[in-house]
Amino acid sequence: MRTGRRALDRLDEEQLVRRVSRGDLAAFEELYRRTSPWLATRLRRRCADEQIVAEVMQETYLAVWRAAAGFVGTATGGTAVGWLWTIAARRLVDAFRRRAHHAAPPSAAAPAPTAPAAEEEALNASVGGDIGDALSALAPELREVLRALVLDGLTVRETAVLLGLPEGTVKTRARRARIAMRRALA
């Protein structure tokens, strides 16, 4: 099921995933070519350990190859890229859990970026108006928890592992973020 490179260039990521589900290796390679730089960057923002990022990337794309037939797609409001990120985020949480059993937790999280990240700019652009303003006004630690819970679709436990926080802290920050958003939008 080899597909010409030009034909693949015209397909969106959802169409590529559908072809991957039928065993199309060229579609899988094209999906990887398009999404792996973005995915690696996003994972590095959550984890400074390059070895973990590499493992998560490998596990994510292996899962995509194996589970592409399970992708539901835009029929449920999801996108292929969102589905890919959900897989990667869960694999990252799993990697943190595995590492926690074998070593002490890392002494410091990934360094805070000095300029807004591309995902922050995209979020602010897509969530405009009052909601975007309220989101931008949140303290970074509240925005980080809200992003993991709402945008990444992680559970409280997964968010706690991902951010290296106690579950109670995640719940408190989520509550504070909701209150701040409610006040800003009132």
Descriptive notes:
The chain is mainly alpha-helical. The chain folds into two domains: 105 residues, Orthogonal Bundle (Rna Polymerase Sigma Factor, Chain: A), CATH 1.10.1740; 70 residues, Arc Repressor Mutant, subunit A, CATH 1.10.10.10. Helix content is 72%, strand content 0%. It is built from ten helices and no strands. α2 crosses α3 and α6 packs antiparallel against α7. The N and C termini lie far apart (55 Å). About 10% of the residues have low confidence.
- Quick one: how many beta strands? 0
| Global morphology | globular
Output mean pLDDT. 80
Calculate Rg over CA atoms.
Answer: 18 Å
Low-confidence stretches: 109-126
**Beta fraction of the residues?**
under 5%
Keywords: Sigma factor, Transcription, Transcription regulation
Organism: Streptomyces rhizosphaericola
Protein name: RNA polymerase sigma factor
Family: Belongs to the sigma-70 factor family. ECF subfamily.
Keywords:
186 residues, Rna Polymerase Sigma Factor, Chain: A, Arc Repressor Mutant, subunit A, 2 domains, single chain, mainly alpha
Helices and strands, with pairings:
Elements: H1 5-9, H2 13-21, H3 25-46, H4 50-67, H5 80-102, H6 118-126, H7 129-137, H8 140-151, H9 156-163, H10 167-185
Helix pairs in contact: 2-3, 3-4, 4-5, 5-9, 6-7, 7-10, 8-10, 9-10
